[in-house]
Specification:
This protein is of the alpha+beta class. The protein folds into two domains: about 100 residues, Phosphorylase Kinase, domain 1; about 220 residues, Aminoglycoside phosphotransferase (APH), C-terminal lobe (Aminoglycoside 3'-phosphotransferase, Chain: A, domain 2, Alpha-Beta Complex), CATH 3.90.1200. It is about 50% helix and about 10% strand. The strands form three sheets. It has a five-stranded antiparallel beta sheet with strand order 1-2-3-5-4, sandwiched between helices. A three-stranded mixed beta sheet has the order 6-10-7. A two-stranded antiparallel ribbon has the order 8-9. The radius of gyration is 21 Å and the shape is globular.
Length: about 325
């Protein structure tokens, strides 16, 4: 091991010792210092979860993670009737939450155990539709999903792709995405959870209706919350980077949503759906490459072919002709 590697290991050990001491202090404050902790598998974020006998401990180190935002949004979503974890106790200064344990029956595991795909996804679509019916005003002053945020996310692809792009290519990339954003159809805006997908959804069979769908990740990336198009979370759900979803099945699920919003212009809806789907896939290509290169999490690379396939499909929409031409010119065969 070289000197820099040894220093990095020492720094990591020191930070872990500090987090452990803070974690113990928080649990002691709540009278739980003697309870056994089971570390749950980690994902792409810096958050970690520990299972106690009757709750979960979220360890979310600041400033990268913001527990106050999680609690604020969880309370809002609970008030309108969605299934989200209740927050029992908090230490926002040090980044700890004691939250409701919704179990370990993720959608992936539920399907492995035989729960029908259309039941799971149908409840989630109904849950999102309920959110869009109830939270119609941005009373919480969530940040708008503006052009700056839109481009910043897409540009992760330029920064972390294995391909080299000239300054001319980068400028044209920003130009075609800017035009697509500015020319998008006007659709209703709502709170956007951002990561509604198979491994962030819990199946709660003891509950009824769309409340059987438990949402556990709704503050990713922006933290304080973001106000954007109604299409975004539906894209996140039905164009999942980590699971193959038949487009015909996705269309069937969207019919559930249209049934609850019959006044929607479908042409405008799908123009928005493909725009935000393409932007999201472009971002994910960069994010997964970054996780592999910077963080040593190579397991995410296995999903890249699926994400490219999703992106190709969305780029066929006429609204994205210029974006498609950019990829043809500078990326070629994907």
């Amino acid at each position: 091991m070289n000197v820099s590697s040894a220093l990095e290991v020492g720094r990591t050990d020191s930070l872990e010792s500090e987090r452990k001491a803070l974690r113990t202090a928080f649990l002691k404050r709540e009278g739980l210092e003697k309870e056994a902790l089971l570390l749950l598998p980690a994902d792409a974020s810096k958050r970690r979860y520990f299972r106690l006998p009757h709750a979960l401990l979220m360890d979310a180190p600041p400033p990268a993670e913001k527990t106050a935002a999680f609690q604020f949004i969880a309370d809002l979503l609970y008030e309108i009737g969605l299934s989200v974890p209740l927050v029992y106790a908090a230490d926002h200064i040090h980044g700890f939450l004691l939250i409701e344990d919704l179990g370990d029956l993720t959608y992936r595991r539920a399907m492995e155990e035989g729960v029908a795909e259309d039941i799971l996804y149908g409840d989630t679509v109904r849950g999102l539709a309920h959110l869009h019916q109830k939270m119609t005003e941005n009373t919480a002053n969530f940040s708008p999903y503006d052009l700056e945020a839109f481009l910043k996310e897409a540009e992760v692809f330029l920064d972390w792709s294995s391909l080299f792009f000239s300054e001319k290519a980068k400028d044209e990339f920003r130009q075609v995405w800017t035009e697509a954003y500015e020319n998008q159809p006007s659709l209703p805006q709502r709170f956007v959870m951002r990561d509604v997908l198979i491994d962030n959804l819990m199946w709660l069979p003891s509950r009824e209706g769309f409340n059987r769908s438990g949402f556990i990740d709704f503050q990713d990336g922006v933290h304080e919350g973001i106000w954007g198009p109604i299409t975004y979370d539906l894209v996140s759900l039905l164009e999942d980077a980590r699971r193959d979803i038949d487009p015909t099945f996705a269309e069937k699920m969207l019919e559930i949503y249209f049934g609850m919003f019959p006044e929607l212009n479908r042409g405008d809806f799908f123009a928005s759906y493909c725009l935000w789907g393409a932007q999201r896939s472009t971002k994910i290509l960069g994010v997964f490459s970054r996780l592999a290169k910077r963080d040593g999490k190579a397991k995410y690379l296995v999903h890249l072919p699926r994400v490219w396939k999703i992106l190709e499909r969305d780029l066929q929409h006429p609204h994205l002709k210029a974006v498609r031409q950019w990829f043809d010119a500078y990326v070629g065969k994907r």
